């Protein structure tokens, strides 16, 4: 929604803004010639162009200030005002709200999940904010669905993920980037037309130029050579590492504040490459693996027990591959740990061992059946699950390839562990106590990952 406040129409504009209080915490009038919007709930953020309202007989800088966005939380207080004349702070008009005045304000184009501790200014309004000049307040409410997400790699996973995100309307803007420009544009048209049938207004564009990812809130990287029958993840190591290096440098250039999810195999080593070459904080680089492995384990276990998959919760550790480690005492069916189900005779260890092995080989099984392709629906759904937790600040606990700095006795390595994902990215690594047997398998997985990282040339 846009509100143009023109001379003589301020009262009507104020009434219309007041009606928007239903969607916000408050609308606060500092002075008769200015209005400011206080940030609403955690899911809301706004794009605002601020100018001054005519101030009667007053003139000259000594008699006029240019108010910017009022923000209820201090961590958001410098969204728009930065630099120029004037100062931020100085007094508090209402509890928890600090007004900020400056001769220069900026168009804000951020979304809630990446705004904390990060400000991005696109357009300097400059002379538009001269005191007493005819003023316009452009108001446009934004929310978590207005996130801008870029997908690098428009193949099967990228295409499926774009369709899922567009259909669910978790995001507002989708950008597909792939070196195969024609294929990307075709996929964008196909997905966009499908979204039209679903009534989704999510914007979707495609490009072969990495510059298109600029100002993304999140980036999902699926680009790389796919695994084919008979090919191990390690066979892909150096080829895909080179590709990730170039992508990482582009992300650092165009979207240095983005939350990055890597899907490219061999997963744990590629996440390490992304972190190294992008220079992004470790909390904003993560690999999608454990979510997929947990889904596969839950699916196979639910099938075996003939129960709804909604009743099954699984947790896995370790690398994405043959040494993936399901934690049976933290995996449940109907809230009952799998270990207890084994002890009670509802399950036997041979059945669980077979399910674990099938989970570890889940990707390989699909490759063998498809002959010329690999899994893409489940990996895409796993990425969507991670993105939703980040965009909506759900703080969900899920297993991901995350940076360890002493946790589980591992340092300077990305390994699959349970983490909390919220608006700060990876906000916490959760450490579970392991049995001696589990620790041995986990250590083997770490050794394999470290070897892969060391082999990158």
UniProtKB/TrEMBL annotation:
It catalyses: (S)-malate + NAD(+) = oxaloacetate + NADH + H(+). InterPro entries: L-lactate/malate_DH, Lactate/malate_DH_C, Lactate/malate_DH_N, Lactate_DH/Glyco_Ohase_4_C, Malate_DH_type3, MSP1a, NAD(P)-bd_dom_sf. Its EC number is 1.1.1.37. It comes from the Bacteria. It holds the Pfam family MSP1a. Transmembrane segments: none annotated. Keywords: NAD, Oxidoreductase, Tricarboxylic acid cycle. NAD(+) binds at residues 153-158, 178, 240, 263-265. Substrate binds at residues 227, 233, 265, 296. GO terms for molecular function: L-lactate dehydrogenase (NAD+) activity; L-malate dehydrogenase (NAD+) activity. The active site is at residue 320. Belongs to the LDH/MDH superfamily. MDH type 3 family. Catalyzes the reversible oxidation of malate to oxaloacetate. This is Malate dehydrogenase. It comes from Anaplasma centrale (strain Israel) (Anaplasma marginale subsp. centrale (strain Israel)). The gene is mdh.
């Amino acid at each position: 929604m846009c509100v143009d406040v023109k001379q003589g129409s301020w009262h009507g504009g104020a009434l219309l803004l007041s009606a928007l209080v239903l969607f916000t915490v408050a609308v606060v009038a500092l002075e008769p010639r200015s209005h400011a919007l206080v940030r609403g709930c955690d899911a809301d953020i706004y794009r605002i162009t601020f100018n001054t309202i005519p101030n009667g007989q007053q003139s000259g800088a000594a008699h006029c200030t240019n108010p910017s966005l009022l923000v209820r939380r201090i961590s958001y207080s410098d969204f728009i005002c930065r630099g120029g004349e004037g100062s931020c702070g100085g007094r508090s008009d209402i509890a928890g709200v600090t007004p900020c005045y400056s001769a220069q304000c900026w168009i804000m184009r951020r979304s809630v999940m990446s705004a904390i501790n990060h400000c991005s200014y696109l357009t300097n309004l400059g002379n538009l904010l001269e005191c007493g000049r005819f003023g316009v307040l452009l108001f446009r409410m934004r929310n978590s669905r207005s996130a801008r997400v870029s997908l690098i790699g428009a193949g099967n996973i990228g295409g499926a993920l774009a369709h899922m995100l567009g259909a669910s309307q978790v995001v507002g803007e989708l950008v597909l980037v792939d070196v195969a420009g024609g294929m990307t544009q075709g996929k964008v048209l196909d997905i966009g037309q499908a979204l039209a049938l679903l009534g989704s207004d999510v914007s979707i564009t495609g490009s072969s130029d990495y510059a298109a990812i600029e100002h993304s809130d999140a980036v999902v990287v699926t680009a790389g050579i796919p695994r084919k029958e008979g090919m191990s993840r390690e066979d892909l190591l150096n080829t895909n590492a080179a590709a990730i290096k170039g992508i990482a440098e582009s992300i650092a250039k165009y979207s240095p504040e983005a939350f990055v999810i890597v899907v490219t195999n061999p997963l744990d080593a590629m996440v390490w490459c992304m972190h190294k070459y992008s220079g992004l904080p470790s909390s904003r680089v993560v690999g999608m693996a454990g979510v997929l492995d947990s889904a596969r384990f839950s699916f196979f276990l639910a099938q075996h027990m003939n129960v709804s998959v909604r009743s099954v919760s699984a947790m896995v550790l370790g690398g994405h591959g043959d040494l993936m480690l399901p934690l049976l005492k933290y995996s449940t069916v109907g809230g009952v740990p799998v270990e207890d189900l084994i002890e009670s005779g509802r399950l036997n260890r041979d059945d669980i061992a077979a399910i674990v092995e099938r989970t570890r080989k889940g990707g390989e099984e699909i490759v063998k059946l498809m002959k010329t392709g690999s899994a893409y629906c489940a990996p895409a759904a796993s990425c969507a699950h991670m993105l939703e937790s980040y965009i909506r600040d759900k703080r969900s606990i899920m297993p991901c390839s995350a940076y360890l700095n002493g946790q589980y006795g591992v340092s300077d390595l990305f390994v699959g562990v349970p983490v909390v994902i919220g608006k700060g990215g990876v906000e916490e690594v959760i450490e579970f106590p392991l049995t001696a047997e589990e620790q041995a398998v986990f250590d083997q997985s770490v050794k394999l990952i470290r070897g892969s990282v060391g082999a990158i040339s």
